[in-house]
Structure formats: structure tokens, C-alpha cells
């Protein structure tokens, strides 16, 4: 577990953050200038806080009161930047082993680097370069992996190519991974824990599914990007219709395409704007997915919208309706309603394993 509780003045900007990052991916999310890079730099030892403490398990990296401030090279933080920063004159193999050879065979396997070892960085695609940078960071036997917008410089196909590797890392490497991003779909797919920053402060943090389904988080993510993430299981395939049946605590839903093998866990992102509410069981509609849900919260936005928190079984969903509709329907906390989810609403980039 990584523990961060620090303060730092950077000119007119004040950073004041506290959060815990367990094993898995902790996404540090926020608008440009919210302080994401400063947090990661403080953990890596590239930025010295004015106050507070940073520790990984029992190992203290920084403690103002005890006057501890380990140098970057003594912190065991593997840092992957937006640009891969490989040595151009060295082969992939030499780049990888530059900082150490920890768990080499497994790192090469997990990141699919076997065929690249004798190549030079100049001949690699952006996604391949980032995989090498990740491999190099891992071979230095880090206790924390820090990634600052590692996919930001990549186009959509290269991003899609590298995301499964980062998912494997998340699931196989038992260290905290700090992952800076301002892309909600990336966060929804990769994060275990989510920390949202605004103007140098933590405004929401916790397990990704819990934070993303909070109605008060909608304005922080933007109306178009807000939506719940729910872990589901593949329960069947309707081959003739090209649909996959998924089950979760709130019932079953059908989604287009082949989303995995029977019994496989998938993470489904359901954008709030694609959930429609009805006070009566809907009849004669084309949508395949109707769930019985209970309203847990109603959050007025600054604009014409209301974010509606919904409980489906033990999971949380999020819907967005206009204030006018909420008033007309008489929506209230505790009310049982029907959530209609458009089956085409979820794109494949939003479905992670
Ligand atoms: N050395 C510095 N001196 C003064 N201000 C600084 C310094 N470093 C960062 N800042 C300011 O601190 C704020 C946070 O910067 P930071 O790079 O951490 O944000 P960010 O969320 O990572 O942004 P981006 O997504 O654009 O990279 C910004 O307003 C930035 O201008």
C-alpha cells in the first residue's frame, strides 16, 4: 500500500493531497493543471513537498517531521513518462536491462517483448516503445510503478494495442501502480482505485466502481463522460442475434458482440446519458435491457440536468435526466423505478477484462 499525505506550494498553486493506493492501478485523474504530475513527481522524489509523509508499506520515502527524504534512486519507483525516453543507440534488450534484470523472463512474456529484443527504438511503433519503457521500469524491481499519461502520445489503434498489456500488469504484478490520466474511458477500463484532483485537492477517492457511480462526481468528469462501471460475468451467448448475456447483482443484460468466454469477468461501463428512467414497467420498446432499480440520490447540476444515483442489486448505476423530467416524474430518493439501458450504448473500448 502506498500512502501519500503531502502539501506543497508551487507559486500561486497549492497542492494538498492525501490518499492511499493499494496494489492495482490507482488512477490519478483531473483536468490539466489540477496537480496530477506534481503528485507523481513527489512520490518519485523529483519534487520535494513542504510538509507531510509518503510511505510504501513500512518504507518511508518522505517524512517532513522525521526529516526523511530518500533520493529518487533509493525510492524503488519505476517511472514511465508520456514519451518512452529510451536510449536510441541501444537495442531493446540493452534498454530493458539498463536498470536491472528483475523477473526478466516474466516481464518479457507479460509485455510481449520477445520479438523486439534485438531491434532499436527508432524502428518501434509508439505502443511498442511504451511497452519497452514499462518493461525497463519493471526490471528495476520497483515497489511502485508510476505512469504519467503513458498513452497520451499514442493514436487510438496504438492505445488499443497496449491497454491489454497494462491490464495484465495490473492483474499480475502485486505492486501499487500510480496512473495519471485525464481520459475517463481509460480510467474506467484500467483503474482499481480512483483519485480525482481539482485545483490541487482530492475531491473524490475510493474504489473505481464506487467513485464513478457517485452523482456528485458527474460535474467533475463531464456530463458526457460520467457513468458507472460494473463488474459482470458472461452468462451466455445468443449466437443467432450476435448478443452476449451478462449477469450481475442487479439482474441480466444483453450486449451486442462477443464479450468473452462463458464465466469470464468483464467490466462494463454504462454512460449515465444512455440510461433512461421510467416509473412504470415499459412496454413496446426496442431496448433489451430493463432493470428494476431504487433511487439513492438526486444531484442537481449547474445546467438543466439532474444526476440520479441508482441501486441495482448491490451495484450502483448512474442516470442523467433533465430537471424538467425529474420534476414531472416526481423522482425521489427511495423510489423504485425502471432503468432502460440501450444495448448499443457501450462501445468495445469500454469493455475491459
Ligand atoms: N515549479 C513550479 N513552479 C510554479 N508552478 C508550478 C511548478 N510546477 C507546477 N506548477 C503549477 O502547478 C499546477 C499543477 O501542475 P501539474 O503539472 O502537477 O498539473 P497536471 O494536473 O499534471 O497538469 P497536466 O495534465 O497539464 O500535465 C499548474 O498550475 C502548474 O503551472
TrEMBL record:
One of its GO terms (molecular function) is ABC-type transporter activity. One of its GO terms (cellular component) is membrane. Residues 284-350 form the Mop domain. SMART domains: AAA (SM00382). Keywords: ATP-binding, Cell inner membrane, Cell membrane, Membrane, Molybdenum, Nucleotide-binding, Translocase, Transport. Residues 1-224 form the ABC transporter domain. InterPro entries: AAA+_ATPase, ABC_transporter-like_ATP-bd, ABC_transporter-like_CS, Mo/tungstate-bd_C_term_dom, ModC_ABC_ATP-bd, Molybdenum_import_ModC, Mop_domain, P-loop_NTPase. This is Molybdate transport system ATP-binding protein.
Amino acid at each position: 500500500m502506498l500512502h501519500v499525505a503531502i502539501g506543497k506550494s508551487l507559486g500561486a498553486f497549492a497542492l494538498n493531497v492525501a490518499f492511499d493506493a493499494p496494489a492495482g492501478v490507482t488512477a490519478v485523474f483531473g483536468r490539466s493543471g489540477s496537480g496530477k504530475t506534481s503528485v507523481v513527481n513527489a512520490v518519485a522524489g523529483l519534487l520535494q513537498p513542504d510538509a507531510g509523509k509518503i510511505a510504501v508499506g513500512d518504507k518511508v520515502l518522505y517524512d517532513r517531521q522525521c526529516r526523511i527524504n530518500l533520493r529518487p534512486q533509493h525510492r524503488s519507483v519505476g517511472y514511465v513518462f508520456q514519451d518512452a525516453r529510451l536510449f536510441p543507440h541501444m537495442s531493446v534488450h540493452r534498454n530493458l536491462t539498463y536498470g536491472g534484470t528483475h523477473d526478466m523472463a516474466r516481464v518479457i512474456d507479460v509485455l510481449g517483448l520477445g520479438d523486439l529484443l534485438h531491434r532499436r527504438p527508432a524502428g518501434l511503433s509508439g505502443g511498442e516503445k511504451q511497452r519497452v519503457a514499462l518493461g525497463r521500469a519493471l526490471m528495476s524491481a520497483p515497489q511502485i510503478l508510476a505512469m504519467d499519461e503513458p498513452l497520451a502520445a499514442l493514436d487510438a489503434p496504438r492505445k488499443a494495442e497496449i491497454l491489454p498489456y497494462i491490464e495484465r500488469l495490473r492483474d499480475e504484478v502485486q505492486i501499487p501502480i500510480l496512473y495519471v490520466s485525464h481520459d475517463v474511458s481509460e480510467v474506467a477500463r484500467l483503474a482499481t482505485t480512483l483519485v480525482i484532483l481539482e485545483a490541487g485537492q482530492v475531491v473524490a477517492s475510493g474504489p473505481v466502481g464506487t467513485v464513478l457511480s457517485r452523482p456528485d462526481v458527474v460535474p467533475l468528469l463531464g456530463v458526457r463522460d460520467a457513468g458507472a462501471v460494473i463488474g459482470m460475468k458472461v452468462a451466455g451467448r445468443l449466437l443467432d442475434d450476435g448478443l452476449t448475456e451478462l449477469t450481475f447483482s442487479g439482474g441480466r443484460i444483453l450486449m451486442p458482440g462477443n464479450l468473452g468466454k462463458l464465466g469470464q469477468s468483464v467490466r462494463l461501463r454504462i454512460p449515465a446519458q444512455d440510461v433512461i428512467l421510467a416509473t412504470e414497467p415499459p412496454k413496446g420498446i426496442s431496448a433489451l435491457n430493463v432493470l428494476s432499480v431504487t433511487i439513492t440520490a438526486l444531484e442537481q447540476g449547474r445546467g438543466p440536468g439532474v444526476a440520479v444515483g441508482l441501486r441495482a442489486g448491490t451495484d450502483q448505476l448512474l442516470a442523467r435526466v433533465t430537471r424538467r423530467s425529474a420534476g414531472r416524474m416526481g423522482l425521489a430518493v427511495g423510489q423504485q423505478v425502471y432503468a432502460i439501458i440501450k444495448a448499443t450504448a457501450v462501445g468495445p473500448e469500454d469493455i475491459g477484462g
